[in-house]
Design goal:
Number of domains of chain A: 3
Largest interface: A-B, 72 and 70 residues
CATH architecture of the largest domain in chain A: 3-Layer(aba) Sandwich
Oligomer: homodimer
Helix content of chain A: 25-40%
Largest sheet of chain A: 6 strands, parallel
Strand order of the largest sheet of chain A: 6-5-7-8-9-15
DNA sequence: GTCTCGTGCTGAAAGGTTTTAGCACTGGCG
DNA sequence: CGCCAGTGCTAAAACCTTTCAGCACGAGAC
């Protein structure tokens, strides 16, 4: 059916609420035009019972109605443009065909919005709606959002976070399905996370393979973030991957710049320091793209060119990575894929507890030059 | 109440659906622990009728219950941790306390996610939930989303778009409240748009006031976008503002670069062309920040510095505008404020048809140098 | 003593769906 | 003929809320 065929026909108000919906004057006569048709209307028009209509329209197996009856019901439903009333169905069934997405600020900031894309994608495939709430990291807001969702009897909950951290969630109703994306919580067994160890390893190898073992610098070492799961549970793994690659190759970086917040200006400052120190740097592992962006600004100011003089590899595949000249080689944070995974896990009938890692694919672009 | 107090107590399943919810073993005895309490449970505990409970809990004016009765009901509700069943209420009331947000790709791309922030902000204040759907510009998806929302009996609809264009929407049920944000539709009378004329004027004046009248270039003239409302209904106004300022000052640009798609590489190419043409350019009006970013890359490659040699002003206040060195002076696209406005208009009881313009504030940063 | 009115409260219907239990009929078998 | 099984269909309950209509009772007016 097409929604566009619904129009209000009178402006009458009954019981303080408008009820006057109906079909555009169309080919079918004898239809009550004052309100949305119900099962009873379809039943009347088909000359059968509500039970029969419900059975047929939901084609329940085992209900043995004559082919004629089935045809009449379908015809009547089509003619009346019947759509079931979601509230009534929810009331009866105890489920709503709706899931909730609660995050700190995934939806409302630009960084991880691809996560929503993934979520909505799968939800849509499964004819499921998504209710959204953001907490801005306030426990009060979280409690409120949760209460709202539970009251609406959502069929499941997805918890998301901007940075992959440990979340403090209240205990959920035990029958409530839930998945965390880009975060973990002791109260939710199923979690979807980016495969950071692999990414750390891949990024580092990319520079090592290009021959930068002798002049490698790390821009953005973050010991605090590494050790505090409330800041991140995955940064640690990213560094583990980096170190595994270095260890394997027997390489020690010529410089390691430490700072916890990864914004362009920090990358700029840190890289400036490295350059001023005179360390013989030929390759930069920047801990994210914004840091890499700042690093490049510092290099440019020094008259150094990427990748001719210094190569850069990085993490995230932020918008900025593709705007840079040269475009940045970086390990992509797979937000969309994580969103898809989460929704699939949530909607799947069986449980799938545990950590589900999603690969961070290396986007190889032009910021690395092979040496000699 | 706190949601965390709900836990499943048995794993029993009735009618094929789990119903076993209850209070954590707490201070109150004699409460049925097997399911969410209903009005009837509260009534029983308070020794009154369902009617009385409903009346009191919704504190309907004109219902004259004794102070004692009111107290008993509140107490019982609190003890049982009663929360009304949203589906039942919707069924009865015909409204849901939920609005729908349908857009092409506002939620799922990074550009306009602040719009959602504004929407959710206000929705939250008004205890309203938000159902989200994205159409990716497919009419099929749009119809599906609309149908879904109408079926769920949302109390209103917000239509959003990434670029401020004319939308083709099916006729809505006439009683359905609706607002468009950053887009317009003949079927929806209330629209929220950015105040582009004012922004065009302000940006241009900023360069003129700094003395760049003699060396002004426009990077990103877009005649097609200007004249096709399906691409944009506001770009036109942006140019009108620019031209009004120029006309007023009696200024003719020394160069006008035309291209319809405003990505960094286009800005880069266009600026390169201008520089190669030898036009005596001292100030660039870039039609968005990404174009400005590309322009700066071209300038830098030519050994020209911003703002020392060339000044830049731009539109949008994209992420990138604040990352650039120097940070970019730009007229902010007020997505968040537009979102707030839209939700306020939607939730307001009276209608407010017409166009609601939201100011685009000029973010004055360091990319403009006053000429001697 | 009857009527009227105000007070405090309640029964029952309505909203639209799903599902259980079961009715009425036919045909086949013993 | 009696019984059983199968076929085609339906009545009614249940889900939980809101609200209309109205009951019972006591006080005051006439």
């Amino acid at each position: 059916m097409s929604v566009s065929r619904w129009v209000r026909v009178t402006t009458g108000v009954a019981n303080g609420r408008p009820t006057a919906y109906g079909l555009l004057s169309g080919p079918h006569e004898g239809v009550d035009v004052t309100k949305r048709p119900t099962l009873a209307d379809v039943a009347a028009r088909a000359g059968l019972s509500k039970t029969a209509v419900s059975l047929v329209l939901n084609d329940r197996p085992g209900s043995r109605l004559s082919a004629d009856a089935v045809a009449r019901i379908h015809e009547a439903a089509r003619e009346l443009n019947y759509r079931p009333n979601a509230a009534a169905r929810s009331l009866r069934l105890g489920r709503t065909g709706t899931v909730g997405f609660i995050s700190d600020e995934v939806t409302i900031t630009r960084f991880a919005s691809a996560m929503i894309r993934g979520l909505l994608d799968i939800a849509d495939e499964q004819e499921t709606g998504v209710l959204i709430a953001e907490t801005g990291n306030h426990p009060k807001q979280l409690a409120k959002a949760l209460e709202f969702m539970v009251d609406r009897q959502v069929d499941g909950l997805v918890f998301g976070a901007l940075t992959a951290r440990l979340l403090e969630l209240p205990t959920l109703p035990e029958s409530m399905r839930a998945v965390t994306v880009n975060c973990v919580s002791p109260t939710v067994p199923t979690a979807v996370l980016p495969s950071e160890e692999q990414a750390g390893y891949a990024v580092t190898r990319q520079l090592l393979d290009a021959g930068h073992g002798a002049g490698l610098a790390i821009i953005g070492n973050a010991p605090v973030a590494q050790s505090d799961p409330h800041i991140s549970v995955t940064i640690d793994r990213r560094f583990n991957g980096i170190h595994r690659a270095l260890l394997e190759a027997g390489v020690t970086p010529v410089a390691v710049e430490e700072f916890e917040i990864w914004e362009p200006w920090h990358g700029y400052d840190a890289t400036k320091r490295v350059l001023e120190s005179g360390a013989p740097v030929t390759g930069l592992i920047c801990l994210n793209d914004r840091v890499a962006f700042g690093a490049q600004q510092a290099l440019t100011e020094r008259g150094l060119r990427v990748p001719d003089d210094v190569s850069i590899a990085s993490f995230d595949d932020d918008e900025i990575a593709s705007y840079m000249r040269p475009a940045l080689t970086t390990a992509r944070l797979p937000y969309e894929e994580m969103g898809r995974q989460a929704m699939e896990l949530l909607l799947r009938p069986e449980d799938s507890p545990g950590e589900h890692l999603v690969e961070m694919p290396l986007q190889v672009r032009e910021s690395i030059r092979p040496l000699g």
